[in-house]
């Protein structure tokens, strides 16, 4: 699939790319649970960090990857030839890149390791450099360089490792770059170079620093370097540079004594190894460890644990096994083995999001680490399938970020239960934030059957911002903490259900001039951030409407399985269930605002702490009434028919309270977001879904880049959002934004438009895997730009949605309050030649191999489930919708240690 690019090797997702240096912006992630986060490029550029304030290598953006000279370099001075870089990072090799003298090179990668091979045919020297971050408790990246004489004559060479040690916060890159180097304390040791800055430099208060950065090395046997070059300016020499350093080019002898302290200079891990003669066919290897430590580095321990070829090889195998086992919790087997292996890389991406957050890779050069509220809930979608043991704890903890006014903290700290209002303490409310937790929680409950989760108590987030950040409570002080207290000063806790109800009911009343929910700071599309006063998000009004319906059904199910007649809620909330007390007209925007203000006034500065018991059926009926009103409102008022006869839903109103979509002098305006949630939530009728598909194909589908997020609006929309300042076809302005495109596919599958949904998913795969255009490694990007290049690779919430869509909609493996629901929506081309398609996944804490047998090669809509066997024996199941249910008790009776096979025969 990857035309003129990478090729898969074997069946474990490993791939190979020839002459990788010919392609810009490529990088690969290396990471571990201890907190080491690296990015590595085909010439071993990139960055190494454990947080925003602790970068071992200099923080980089994508353009630095080919413009900066700093990299993980390993030099060889070859007698009779001169300096040569095993990473290809030298002035000489860079000059040869586009000439006939270009070296042979290729990179290989797997889960999660990276290998670069370069062959200097002129000299007859091959270098293989393997890099990975071991799955230990240390923050360390390892690199092994193997040099082989491929010629017919002996080679005399002197090796030198050279990794620049930035050793400080990303904030210091532009702010006091030189001044912060004066804080450096450089400690040459037996095995390498350590840097421990004296202070953590911050003009708000300089603090004593303990964090230490180091580069240690040895030869294959564990022998230490023969000498060191710890100071950058001495290593490169006057007039020299990191890609042509005097110490290597002139083959200087190192003269830095071990055990001394050097202060006040930029540092480099310059490690000189013993001069060696390589006979034809002979090889020699070197190990380099790049370390971030909480204090001075335990050199002897690191040397013992990491600095030998035997240790390196053992740790590499352990690393490969660890990642393959983690990713084997879900795997797809269809008629397209290439796409199945590509999906393996998509499966990795939600894990990378959990570990990196949304920072620390070259495209993600913003933020200071951590994740936003929306990221937290959407990443949990995939973790439920891949790492289910932690999900209940994570979900419960996440709800502590909800405010009693229905809004929430927007930034999640590194510790459980740590939340802040926003980056840089700017208070802002994204109107969509309240919608996502229910979706994720419903998936958890349907997968697990854990309905009691709804009744678990949890605290609320509290800071000075009240009334959805429109006001400040000056009586609140930071020393009060970040948890809501009652009037008596005791911690207030409500059930998870109470949190969910607040996040979905409050927005119902928070409407704009067209009776749709206000856009506020933005919705899912952060780029729509300039309509806080009169803007409305019709798209997410549809999402909230479907949530209210889901909540109504969930409450009735809770009553059915628990025999509960009532639920307990904060007494202040009764006003929000207006049909239970004093019903208002939902057509009246004034009445909605007045009711919401009454609720706000009752919870500021705090609440009573008392609770009322409400009848479950009456609460469910109230929610259903609200949902049905919204659905009817949207169908009547937001359906567009344009001059060309195409029809779809309007998605937004701008800050002048003008409808955003439809016919304009500049052309037709349309957003994909406005269609996704109306389809997914059942707002659009089946007939309307068909018309929406036609309109999307007409105005948003582009054969070159896929399904655009929006059509060309023309001009900067200062009354809608910054996104329209971006060039059209880039990022949130008209690119193929994978997240919403995958959700569009998901919505189509949910509504039974399988052919159309499959076409959307296939376009994402085809565009991403076509390396000749996308120029990216396997996986799904955040977006595809106007040129077809995949952008912002690895860290995208679209990976979670793509994984879940494949599993729950395409392969039809999902939960129904704990039971296994099988409802395949595979098209005939997705089965292999024998008519089989299968998925391996965790369900009910058992590994299941679910195999669909389609011997007649029928297409979706033609086949039905004819029989089901478990481990070769017939089992009882019941029909459910268009699929079948297998009781959870049947699965829980199976041993946990085995993989169990469920065979489903499909017949016409």
UniProtKB/TrEMBL annotation:
Annotated Glycosyl hydrolase 94 supersandwich domain residues: 108-307
Superkingdom classification of source: Bacteria
InterPro entries: 6-hairpin_glycosidase_sf, 6hp_glycosidase-like_sf, GH65_N, GH94_catalytic, GH94_Enzymes, Glyco_hydrolase_94_b-supersand
TM region positions: none
UniProt entry keywords in alphabetical sequence: Glycosyltransferase, Transferase
Annotated Pfam families: GH94_b-supersand (PF06165), Glyco_hydro_94 (PF17167)
Name under which the protein is recorded: Cellobiose phosphorylase
Species name: Paenibacillus segetis
